[in-house]
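User: Some background: our group keeps a shared notebook of sequences we're curious about, and every so often someone picks one and asks for a predicted structure to add to the entry. Today it's my turn. The entry only has the sequence so far, pasted here. Could you supply the structure so I can complete it?
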Amino acid sequence: MTWVAGLIATGEVKCDGCEKIMRHPDRYAYISEEGQPSLRLCEKCSDARGYMRKRKDEKGKESASFL
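Assistant: Of course. Here's the predicted structure to add to the notebook entry:
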């Protein structure tokens, strides 16, 4: 089972994909897969691995959100 949470960095968080240091208010994904170590991925790495989805609100404004 895979669990994905979209979080906001409150200090310094290192991306497990590209090793970028994320600081407040950067968003990142916390991914937990059964039997695997947890991952923290920046928005770019999350998008590249398919954990982000672009959505439009009722006014047509596009935004990116984690699955």
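Suggested note for the entry: Residues 2-66 form one domain. The chain has one domain: 2-66.
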